[in-house]
Amino acid sequence: MRKLLEFVEFLLIKLFNRLDKPSIENRILIGKILCQQLKNIEKPSSLSEAEFKIFSQHGEDGIIQYLIQRIPIDRKIFIEFGVGDYRESNTRFLLVNNNWKGLVIDAEEKCIKRLRKYDFYWKYDLTAVHAFITRDNINDLFVSCGFEGDIGLLSIDIDGNDYWIWDAITVVQPRIVICEYNSVFGKDRAVTIPYEPSFNRTKAHYSNLYFGCSLKALCLLANRKGYMFVGAESSGTNAFFVRKDVANGIKPCAFDEGYIESRARESRDEKGNLSFITGAERKKIIAGQKVIDVITGKEILIQEL
Description:
Layout: H1 2-17, H2 24-38, H3 60-68, E1 77-81, H4 92-98, E2 101-106, H5 109-115, H6 120-123, E3 126-130, H7 138-144, E4 149-156, H8 162-168, E5 172-180, E6 191-192, H9 201-204, H10 215-224, E7 227-232, E8 238-243, H11 255-258, H12 281-285, E9 290-293, E10 299-301
């Protein structure tokens, strides 16, 4: 089924690339056709079979559509933070294809100002807020914007305190949660960076590799909050979780089986230039940085992982 989706997507993209000015409308049309193809997936071997990209960074758009076709969602509301100017995001296709209501938050004021100038901002029910998120302000931000209770989806991607922020969220109970994990930390240990309210990925370590948490740490947190891990998208960036009481037949995935190592070569040298380091060499660069083992609560060095 995955090969069929890829073939259909390939043909559609080829078709629209023949146009002089491929438009947002054409991309959305591709997405609508691919959504229909998702209905033919009954028992995927992994979430990657449902992947396609319209506005998401990788294949998240397709996975989200696959999940919302199967999970009962009463309040079609999403929250996403760490969105930049929203040109690339996990929820924009939900907004324009499914007409969901949403809240997006980003720490860069210029990005939020740019977002508010797009025509889709007035065409759809979207609230965009400029704020630097901490575990102390996250719930108040949601409530002040009128977002509480049972919602459809929450997407977390702030390249830093992701674990601590999800842990702190109590005022919304999303049915689907998407959260970025750091595959450089490996699949065996449940670790996260220590909480630092003003954490900045680049300032924390020049390599840009020291951020976030391991997949195992997210899975343990998810289970404690009433969610099950259902898989990761194929780039090894985002993990997907479904609230257990609404799983509706969707099967859980073991974290060690669902772990995917990222192949992205986004490391930087001390001058800020891409260094293209890959594999285990990435962990060596940040070996002296500290992480918290969320099971024991102890602080350890990455070289001990």
